Amino acid sequence: MDEITIGDKLYVSSKRAAQITGYAKDYIGQLCREGRVEARLVGRNWYVLDSALREHRFGKAVEEAAPQKKER
Length: 72
Prior knowledge:
By secondary structure, this protein is of the alpha+beta class. The chain has helices spanning about 15-20, 25-35, 50-60, 60-65; strands spanning about 5, 10-15, 40, 45-50. A four-stranded antiparallel β-sheet has the order 1-2-4-3.
């Protein structure tokens, strides 16, 4: 199982998270244990909130990061 939905949030397995980010699966587990990304432990497997994982690895979206210019 690579994805689960808890509430209305999509969580991906640590294995899938490693594929998405290029990080090692062990490093994903470390991020989860340290609380650096929102995650849930289901049985013995970590599931990471997809949006939190992408924000941690790739940063915020370009539109959000760049301030909007006001027209005069």
